[in-house]
Here is the input.
Amino acid sequence: MAINEQYRTCQTTGLRVYKSAENLIKANAVVAVVFLLVGGVFGIMVALTRWKAVHLLPADWFYLALTAHGINLLVVWIIFFEMAVLYFASSVLLGSRLATPRWAWAGFALMLIGAIVTNIAVLQGGSSVMFTSYVPLKADPSFYAGVILFAVGALIGCFVFFGTLVIAKQEKTYEGSVPLVTFGATVAAIIAVFTIASGAIILIPTFLWSIGYVSHIDTLMYRTIWWAFGHSSQQINVAAHISIWYLISAVVLGAKPLSEKVSRGAFLLYVLFLQLASAHHLLVDPGISSEWKIFNTSYAIYLAVLGSMIHGMTVPGQIESAQRKKGYTNGLFEWLRKCPWGNPAFSGMFISLILFGFLGGISGVVMGVEQINLIIHNTIYVPGHFHATVVAGTTLAFMAVTYLLIPLIFQREIMFPSMAKLQPYVFGLGVAGISLFMMGAGTLGVPRRHWDISQADAVLPYDFPGAANLMMGLNGISALLAGVGGVMFIAVAVGSIFFGKKIVDSTETAAAEPAEATTATEYGSDEHPAIPGTIVLVAVFFTTFVLYYFVNWKYLAEVWPLR
Amino acid sequence: MSVTPPKSRLWWNDPVPKSELIWVIVAFVWGLIMFFMMIYWHAYGEQNLSNEAYKITAEQFSAKTEAMTEKYTVREESGYPVVHPPPGEDIYMIARLWQWWPILELEKGQSYRLHLSSLDWMHGFSLQPININLQIHPDYEMVLTITPTTTGEFGIVCNEYCGIGHHTMLGRMYVVDNEGI
Here is the structure.
């Protein structure tokens, strides 16, 4: 093994960057961005088709585009980027060489081949089965095969990450416990293993069914296990993007966790409870008992929600604490006003935090209430919710951290800095619009995954209220705005990576033996200043949460009695 | 910092700041409230999905629905029978590519045991504009008791993607005042 592998030390951050990890981070991040572009283009087409006045695509193309949009963004873009995050959080943050880089490249190749195979299957038109591929809708066998290959590749990546943790520990590249960000990434990787195992359990039989070796797959079993894969894959994102919130506030502001114990405890709650979320999709399915639904949908008494609510305080709290230590102590919010809002890494991270909490988090809990789900299930409210979590939360956080990775890993200066400065705002505003307008249309009953709600071809047409069409139009406009934000991001990222000015500020060293451990720095568990501004923010959040929660019970109470 | 190991080796012994402790407790209690709210609604709320469901074949379900339709059809509309079963009766609706069949006509304020199943793929029962949404599986018969409280014409949209004709899959339900009958 290449113990003598070369590394360089970044002069700005003091981080030790090994060549093998650096190359893998670069490759995964670049491929991720390519699929972001592909999936984003399909997303715009979907939104423009659902905008009644435009109605861009014919029906078959619409369902094809929607399938491609879901696969490429919910899976391919995000998991490729997460591989880069895992390698960064292990090798770079721990200053360790990467375990078995060859296996990591094999995993990368499998993921890439899988993604391409699935995309070809979708584009051929015979696999418009949506991201969920519910049986008995049958896709081309290569559709499932591609997803399985991709998952195997991702699993290899997770084990390379775990292996790197072991090597770093053995070679004593750090002292004491791993950094909080690495801890969060470990949580993401553990959830990923659970996710991929669930995916294998359901997708391998489905693949065999598609080639005729299995005769029947029960639809309820499929949904139950598939969602242990489908929902958990989005929980990997939560753990990953919250780690990135901590990472960015540490790098940009020097923020330190208020309490390591509380933040790590909150991450630990994710490992224990986030996987139960499969139930969120099964609340109005037949044949599942209310007891099962209530326990699972609430992550066992909302313990994973508790984890997210804790991060929702500790992340802004540590920012406030860091800012107050710098002297921004006037009033409740001077610390917030004086944050580096012109730095896209920071602004992207903070917008991600706010939108994830207020839009994604609250709506997710409310629609996950067993009974309230009756008025939300499969309406377009559902994509409204998950665009707030996965796009505003995860994707925007990944974009934000890219602004840090470009100088650190790619060693390039950011190109078009004024465009980069604006990008998180444009994208954030667009995504907030997408989420809000879809949720609004959903409360009016507009279905998700539907080519034409004006139902022109139906024998028994039904007219949705005019407001529904207005909302879908506004959703289209918001999607265009988010698309502009996405293009700005890709222009800055690709431009900087390939044409940006090279940064030479690191010293290359051939490590004959592992260098001395990273010095542990101080953190402010017991000495941080009071954080009144954060308390006010959290109080506003909590009030919104409680009000919105009970408003939805009120909506439910107006519906016909059912029992 | 979050990107470096904690300075204190025994970080788990450090005291938790008061503001965080309070928030953890508030959030935990809120979780308890939300958890018990679902149980409370089962006891006192009026909108709960029943747990009643059976395994069934497409032929069996289709036979039951046709028997009801034969017995209680009152008129025809766009090729669909309009079925007006007596209050309290078991009523059936078939989901299939790409229709909800038949059209049901119910009386306001009366309760019915509604049976739902799919003869082929998965479908989504979405009663509009009331906005009640249910997942309809093949091979599973879902039974729930509904009590319409508003009169008028209601649309049944399919909100689970079921192939190229998905957007044409619409059904209808009428609710009438029983004095008018």
Summary: Chain A touches chain B through 116 residues (CB under 8 Å). The two ends of chain A are 64 Å apart (CA to CA). Residues 511-524 of chain A have pLDDT under 50 and may be disordered. Residues 59-94 of chain A form the longest helix (36 residues).
